[in-house]
Amino acid sequence: MSRDGHFLALAGGVGGAKLANGLTQVLAADALTIVVNTGDDFEHLGLHVSPDIDSVTYALAGLNDPVRGWGLAGESWNAMRAVARLGGPDWFALGDHDLATHLLRSQRLRAGETLSQVTAAFARRLGIGHRIVPMSDDPVRSVVDTDEGPLPFQDYFVRRRCEPAFRGIGFDGIADARPAVGFLDALADPQLRAIVLCPSNPLLSLRPILSLPGVDERLRARRVPVVAVSPFVGGDAVKGPAAKILRELGVPVTPEGLLSFYDGLVDALVVDACDADWASCSRLSALATDTLMRDPGDQARLAREVLAFIDDLPGRSAGA
């Protein structure tokens, strides 16, 4: 699809991967940069695992498992069964084919490559032309504050299945981390047309990106709109613990509740048709549509609607 300007999408999780994939279907490779959360990254069985980067990469390559929403389609689990048989940790399942990604990523990182370089190399090998950029090449690790104390992200999310009550989230290493060069280049691009916050968990997936030093300042000084796509439908999350987390924080699972996490950074919001009444009286520009992405066709449809919505938005002044 021919469209003037460059678009920056911030993504994490399954919903983020879906809309990112939709955007790649309607935007040329040189018209889109996808910046992905790495707060979920961790070391497992001695391997560097980047769950959100892999979800986006596999989705764009057409290799993702559409049923589970993560990992590779047609996966097998022989290695994890062998790990369990030998008494090793099998609570975080790495499929046999998925293991190749983590083995090679870990090898290349140890050899001195950055996470950005490894991610770009894997994308090229999988035939992906669009740019997938980790939010930072420096280690940032999300830590969830719960009623049971602090838990590393994957312990909270996978090992404990989000059962402890959510109290807050912090990011180890964030003060010393820097946005990846590809992220900064996209923000500084004079052809930047808009920034899209994909329908990702606002705390677990997007706050790590927005918390990187300098990012908030750059976003507040921008001359282009920031458009968020809500991950909520009818007062609940499409997938994942976002609704549970908001309720535990006393925040309504509504478009207004979502906006409370963005502190005035969002200029326009795309919500599900269930929230059409809110959209009609919103103080922000708002689009109400079917936000469920059941298949790649739906992903492309929603991407086209988001881009058409952006085309109709008024311009803004720096720092507005």
Give the topology.
Layout: E1 6-11, H1 13-26, E2 32-36, E3 42-44, E4 47-49, H2 51-61, H3 78-85, H4 98-110, H5 115-125, E5 131-134, E6 141-146, E7 149-152, H6 153-159, E8 166-172, H7 181-188, E9 192-197, H8 202-210, H9 215-220, E10 226-229, E11 232-233, E12 236-237, H10 242-248, H11 255-259, E13 268-272, H12 276-280, E14 285-289, H13 296-311
Parallel strand pairs: 1-2, 1-9, 2-5, 9-10, 10-13, 13-14
Antiparallel strand pairs: 3-4, 6-7, 6-8, 11-12
Shape: globular
The number of domains: 1
Q: Considering DSSP H and I runs of 4 or more, what fraction of the residues is helical? A: 25-40%
- First-last Cα distance: 30 Å
Task: Give your account of this protein's structure.
The protein has 320 residues and is an alpha/beta fold. The chain has one domain: Rossmann fold (3-Layer(aba) Sandwich), CATH 3.40.50.10680. It is built from 13 helices and 14 strands. The chain has helices at 13-26, 51-61, 78-85, 98-110, 115-125, 153-159, 181-188, 202-210, 215-220, 242-248, 255-259, 276-280, 296-311; strands at residues 6-11, 32-36, 42-44, 47-49, 131-134, 141-146, 149-152, 166-172, 192-197, 226-229, 232-233, 236-237, 268-272, 285-289. The protein has a 7-stranded parallel β-sheet with strand order 5-2-1-9-10-13-14, sandwiched between helices. It has a 3-stranded antiparallel β-sheet with strand order 7-6-8. Helix 1 runs parallel beside helix 2 (51-61), helix 1 (13-26) packs across helix 13 and helix 4 (98-110) packs across helix 5. The longest helix is centred in the last third of the chain and has 16 residues, at 296-311. The chain starts with 5 loop residues before the first strand and ends in a 9-residue tail after the last helix.
